[in-house]
Each structure stands twice: as structure tokens, then as C-alpha cells.
Amino acid sequence: MAKEASNTNGSVTTKPPPSPSPLRNAKFFQANMRILVTGGAGFIGSHLVDRLMENEKNEVIVADNYFTGSKDNLKKWIGHPRFELIRHDVTETLLVEVDQIYHLACPASPIFYKYNPVKTIKTNVIGTLNMLGLAKRVGARILLTSTSEVYGDPLMHPQDETYWGNVNPIGVRSCYDEGKRVAETLMYDYHRQHGIEIRIARIFNTYGPRMNIDDGRVVSNFIAQAVRGEPLTVQAPGTQTRSFCYVSDMVDGLIRLMEGDNTGPINIGNPGEFTMLELAETVKELINPDVEIISVENTPDDPRQRKPDITKAKELLGWEPKIKLRDGLPLMEDDFRTRLGVTRKN
Ligand SMILES: O=c1ccn([C@@H]2O[C@H](COP(=O)(O)OP(=O)(O)O[C@H]3OC[C@@H](O)[C@H](O)[C@H]3O)[C@@H](O)[C@H]2O)c(=O)[nH]1
Questions:
Q1: Which of 89, 160, 200, 243 has the fewest CB neighbours in a 10 Å radius?
Q2: Which spans does this entry mark as compositional bias, Polar residues (predicted)?
Q3: pTM to 2 decimals?
Q4: Residue of the nearest CA to atom 9 in ligand 1?
């Protein structure tokens, strides 16, 4: 598995990757792939675990501190012989023998990552250092879920991976966006200095079943509001844009990146771009035409526009999203109705 990956920032590591466990090549050792998913009890993490567990050759270990994740998201796997769940905070070291690490752990909703900003930056910096240390020790390949937020309030539109971003280093979002930027730096430094096999995904806004109902992000807020019959709260001015990727497409992109030969960073997101007013109108039309749309105050540093250029993902991973927003929203609605106990009026 120690194959040289093409890296896209122009520099190539000369150091070979560390060797994986000798057991991996042993004649009588069961050749299962052991995979660690940090943040595996969270929204994207648990969908990724579902997909990895479908492959009988995979053993999956989840490490999660349950700050925003939940055991409930993994209940179908608890007790499965190929599955293990550890309550663990990535700011502490973790020693497990694995072949791949999907490093997702970090609160992703602005409300949650701003709740304890010092903890958020520790998660991104110390957490990523710890996972890279583990990758080095056991010779594992590691994938970091970075974010479209590394582009900040982007002056280039759409954003491709060559754009260095427009980020406020002392803003209220910097614990997350600067944290993820340092995490990317650490990934590349470990790659160049120690030959670690790295993969970096820049994830754009993602939605789907299992998002926390009071998560604070726009899609989960609007769907919960529409299902409860409450006004949809569009934060001013409402003309800011985002691009929303359905979670199954996201998971597909992450697995292709991990399994492929390119280090990234690679944007994984749906290029369909919507203003928040358009999103509110779509949710109202599809889910509850009786609700009002109201304008509420916004928070500082809210990026004005965001849309991924996914040329690289298409060319290098053969990946592009399949699920359109109008098809994905009703799938999420069903999950929210079940969890909120509100049936659809006909
Ligand atoms: O109720 C709401 C919530 C949010 N919004 C608006 O919706 C837009 C999107 O906000 P969200 O909180 O969903 O997400 P953001 O795009 O700000 O951040 C996200 O970026 C990409 C990922 O890395 C993370 O999931 C998250 O940081 C913002 O312009 C926000 O002002 C509303 O209009 N109403």
C-alpha cells in the first residue's frame, strides 16, 4: 500500500512511507483492512462507517468524544464483530493498530465550533498532530476532512484548490477555518518530512439524515422549522450563497479519495449554488407551504459566497455528486419527521 501518491502542490516527498505492520503481509494473517474513523459517531462520520462496514473485508474502529456525535447514529453496528466504538477525545493520544485513518473529528456547525473556540482549535491542531503521529507509528494512510472554510470569505468564485483563501486570522470563525488550515499544513509537513501517505478533502456544505436537529446549520434549521411549522429564519441579507452536497455523495467522494493515488487537497461538494432565500423558498415549497420566511440578524464573518470548482474531483477521482438539492431535501425531511414525531399533513 506504500505507493507514492501524486501531490498537487508541486513538491514531492523523497522519503518512503513508513512500513505498515508486518502482520499485514503475513501468510496466515486475516487480511482485513483496519480502519479508524475519528468523529465516526457524527453526521458524516456515521454515514461513512455504514459504507465501510458494508465491505466484509473492513474492520472499523470509531473514536468519538460525543460532543456533537451520538452513539445512536451507530446503534446498528454496536456489538458487530468487525466494529469497535471507543469514547475518545482526539486531543489525547490514541494507540491502535490500523491501516487507514479517516480523521473527521471536529464540531462542524458554526454554533458548536464557536461554543468553545479554544477546544476547537486544539481539536484541529493537537488532534491532527496526534492522528499523524499514529499514522507514522503504524504506517497508516490518513485522510483529513478539511473544509471549504479554508477559503474564508472567498474573493475567487467558484473556488478551486489553487486559491489560498481570504481568511480573518482573528475572527470568530478562525478557531475552525484557521484550525483546519493548520491541520492541512501539518498533513503536508508530515508527508514531506516523514513520508506519511496523506489525503486531504475540502468538504463543502453537506446535508442529510442524522444531522442534529438543533445543529444550527442552515439546512437542518430550515427543515426542522418547516416540519414544526415555525418561520424559516434567513440570516441577513439572504443573498449569501452556499452549495449543498447530499451526504451519500460526500461519503462516496471521501472513499474514492482515500482509495485513489492523489494526495489532494481536493474539493468535495455539489456545485449547485443557492442563495439562502432561494433555499428557504425551496424548503417552503417542498416541505411546508404554510410557513413564513423571516429575516434575522447574522453573525460576523459570514462568507458571502461559496461554490466548489470540482474539476479536480471529476478528473482525478471520477467523482461528481448525483443527488440534486430538490431530491435530497425530502430524504432528510423523512428522517426529521420521524425524530420529531411530526407526520406530514396531506
Ligand atoms: O438558520 C439559519 C442558519 C444559517 N443561515 C445562513 O446559512 C448560511 C450557511 O450557514 P451554515 O451555518 O449552515 O454553514 P456555513 O456555510 O456558515 O459553515 C459551514 O461551512 C462548511 C462546513 O465546513 C461546516 O459545516 C460549516 O462550517 C450562512 O450564510 C448563514 O448565515 C441562515 O440563513 N439561517
A1: 160
A2: 1-14
A3: 0.94
A4: 218
Is 277 within a domain?
no
List the domain range (segments joined by +) for residue 114. Answer: 22-204+246-270+304-322
For residue 65, being part of any structural domain is answered with yes
C-beta of residue 186 within 8 angstroms of C-beta of residue 136: no
What CATH number did the domain enclosing 127 receive?
Answer: 3.40.50.720
Instruction: List Cα–Cα distances, 20 to 13, 53, 101, in angstroms.
Output: 18, 22, 13
Residue among 43, 218, 275 whose CB has most ligand 1 atoms within 8 A, to mutate:
218
ipTM rounded to 2 decimals? 0.98
The count of structural domains within the chain is 1
Instruction: Choose the residue to mutate in 148, 203, 205 for probing ligand 1, maximizing ligand atoms within 8 Å of C-beta.
Output: 205
Tens-digit pLDDT profile for residues 84-142: 999 999 999 999 999 999 999 999 999 999 999 999 999 999 999 999 999 999 999 99
The protein residue with its alpha carbon nearest to ligand 1, atom 14, reads 217
Q: Which residues are catalytic?
A: 176
- Atom 25 in ligand 1: which residue has the minimum CA distance? 108
Could you give the CA distance from residue 259 to residue 251 in angstroms, rounded to a whole number?
12
